Batch of 2 targets.
Target 1
Amino acid sequence: MIIAANFKTNHTRKSTKAYLGKLNSFVAELKSDDTVLVFPPSSALDNFDLTDNISVGVQNAYPTEKGSFTGEIGLEQIEEFGLTTILIGHSERRHVLGESQDEVAKKYDFYKSCGFQIVYCIGEPKEVREEGIESVIAYNFSQLEGIDISYENLIVAYEPVWAIGTGLTASNEQIEETLALLNEKIKAPLLYGGSVKVANTKEILDIPNCEGILVGTASWDVDAFCEMVEISKKQ
Ligand code: 13P
């Protein structure tokens, strides 16, 4: 299983360090062999001494080694900390910050060429979900345009936009049906994200074709995230 925490615009440099220290001891003691990924804000990136199955990744980066892209970070700033994991295509970047599929695909190509592990996010908005499963799948597949889905270091996170940060989790039936159809095309591990919390972690991880979770809000509390890692180990 893959258990991932997306901090979004939460946590400071100091609190990220404390969080990772606690998570690291917990995972080492639990002897979990799941893959644990943590995406702190870029201001908190650092060299962290972590057990092998925990990796820190970046939430976003510009497709460049370095250059004149005010407000962005590139490969040089990531490599300083030896990090090789990136989140690309998150719905907040697509729908709040207006990143186009073309821009997303450029980032994907660049960080793929650098050999990064890529957690690539797809997911439909509410009005598409309301049109039915065919529209849902067509929309999600359209977010794969220009993306080499045979890339060996790819993980795909299915995160329905209407379930993110809303407390509205997709039903287990909706997740199961969607992941089964995505799995016909995508051979990479599939994660589910969208209002995952301690209370629904087990049932979501039990869904066929679900190889993990990408957690926002509930992951910001280290104790809750540790509980999720523990539930996953018991699967
Ligand atoms: P929430 O868990 O807050 O719904 O966020 C999910 C998400 O966007 C993870 O990337």
Note: The radius of gyration is 17 Å.
Target 2
Amino acid sequence: MKVFKFGGASVNSAAAVRNMATIVSQRLDGALTVVVSAMGKTTNMLEQLVPGVHPASEHEPLLAQVRDYHYTIVRDLFPQPSHPVYNALAVLFAQLEEQTSRPPTAYNFDYSQTVCFGELISTTIISHYLNTLGIQNQWVDVRTVIRTDNQYREGIVDFAATQRNVDRLVAPILEHNIVITQGFIAGSADGHTSTLGREGSDYSAAILSYCLGAESMTIWKDVPGFLNADPKYFPDTVKIEQIPYNEAIELAYYGASVIHPKTVKPIQNKNIQLHIKSFLNPDAPGSIVGPFPTIRPLTPLYIFKRNQTLLSILPKDFSFIAEDNMKTIFAALATLNIRVNLMQNTALSFSLCIDDNPLLLAQLRDQLQGQFLLRYNQGLQLITIRYYTQDIIDRIVGSRTILLQQRTRTTTQLIIQ
Ligand code: ASP
Ligand code: MG
């Protein structure tokens, strides 16, 4: 039993869908669940169509863009105009149109009811396409399978309910058929659509892998595997062949974008191997996250986070930064849902690195300025280097100023101007 996950870039054109179908057709040795994201950048477009984001009167051009994008792909894949895929899509687009014309309610709720169409449409197209190629499969509405709470935009998964649904609805199909289903979306406790957070399809595949006890999960990507740095910013990347589970969790936590941070834990709990492979070169070995003692090859790993704010918080009464002050600061961060990327304290001040967000920063200042003095510096870079040497640090930093640095035996983090 295997689980494949195809992201937006792997199905962003008719040629990409054909390539994806070839990858599946060449790997039909046993039960298979295929999790698919929205095509290309569809989710970004749908985010603009969430009721309340723009006036409904401005929706039509964007809706037309979403429709045209998908129909260009569909007409290429299904030249026969009477193909049933056209009816299925007409229903989905009518529902999408109706959803985007509803009056706004709570944003997170409206968000999930709207963006879910990206995945519903992509999987409908792909399921029909595989069927026409003779790759028999069954489309499953994952909203009946993965259950979350009612947080809607960052739903928390109810694994017990999800497990029951997988056993009842997915496992029996897999005895004789391939399952095609959506990433990213789920069903809330209240019976509506919820979502798992941006880039959440990896996590969907991990949840299903966990509940199905899969032998392996494969993420098909546009990179050859897990690289030691983002090739967009780094000319000479090294592909990591083997990554221990905990190392992958650490890297995702520090901001490595190759996998969604929540993905690894369920996989690790059941000792399932996670393959990261290139859909452009599917026979190449890629990278494997698994029960390995160390990464191989052992090489420095770089994670760059741009647009960072370094915030210094000082008690106005010159008291020390001790538990009671920390409690106040953390309570404010927690209520505003601000994620801290790095923190450090001295006797008199507490420093935090967070993503640039002027709106949240102003709200944090409002909450804290009675008791504390806040100073900040925006537009910084946070660099994390695992398996560093001083030589590497010097080379990366160059002539720039280091505002803050932390080191453990394996990892250093630098905030740089
Ligand atoms: N389509 C969603 C997004 O773009 C989920 C995903 O691709 O993983 O964030
Ligand atoms: Mg994606």
Note: Residues 7-8, 37-38, 43, 118, 183-184, 198-201 surround aspartic acid (ligand 1) (CB under 6 Å).
